[in-house]
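User: Hi! I'm working on a homework problem where we have to compare a predicted structure to a textbook description. Could you give me the structure for the chain below?
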Amino acid sequence: MFSSEQFSMFAAHHGVLSLEELNGVGLSDAQVKRRYAAGLLDRPYPRVYRLTAVPEVWIGDARALALSVKGVISHRAAAYLWGFDERQPETIEATIAYRRRTRVSKAVVHRSKQFDLINEHEIDEVAVTGPARTVLDCAAVYSRKEFGHLVDAVIRSKVLDWPDLYDVYIRHAAKGRNGTGKLRVFLDERYGELRVPDSRWNRMVGTLLEDAGLAGLVYEHEVRGPDGHLIGRVDLAYPEVCLAIELDSVRYHLNHDSFVGDPRRKNALQLQGWTVLTFTWSDYVDTPRQLVQTVRSMLTNLNR
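Assistant: Happy to help. Predicted structure tokens:
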């Protein structure tokens, strides 16, 4: 009743395929219905089928859920798939875009207004939230002790590091996501003041601005005078409107050379018609929305 190609497709996907995938290997909707009626296929969720000859497994159920709701596996189930938590959860959780509607049993489906930030990955043919978003989601459902063990496992795995965790916190907190407070408290207690290289921090702030829709950003932009000589390299810039964004790091800027050189470079930039905004780590961590709004307001003024 199935071709070798179709059997191979089932075998490679834990015995679970969507109706669209079945169509892709030559089975029409009518043929799928006949095989379902004959007991060759089971239908765990709408528009998703499982080959009954294949033993039912947890990862197959996870794949079936993600396919049916057109979302990703998340929270505890995602932590298990990433290997951050060795406990296989009985209830599988998934996340979908906020405007989607779905009705499923045997599972928990979350609707997210920040679905664009999930950083979707695929693990063993299953769509899953990215590692950093998985940690953030787990912050809301794990106990304090459980969450500590989870983060320890994440750092040991080297899939993420501490700046990655700060980055996911800021990107979601800037849009007002509930649950970020618990992650922030944990990061402050466990890590304290972050020592992150300037180049990494530049990227983190740039991502924050790009998430807010402030397009046209350039990293490590070189500003040159009329004769072509280098005036300075700025951390972030919107060259079309001559807006420079400088990030003051305690680690890299509070030394004699920077103390003397940074103000001179800023003065030279301003003489060339550039507007310079300066932000600190505290601006980024404590008031990210205000940071974004300051840049947005300045861009609006400069574009007039």
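For your comparison, note the following. Residues 256-271 form the longest helix (16 residues). The longest strand covers residues 230-238. Good luck with the assignment!
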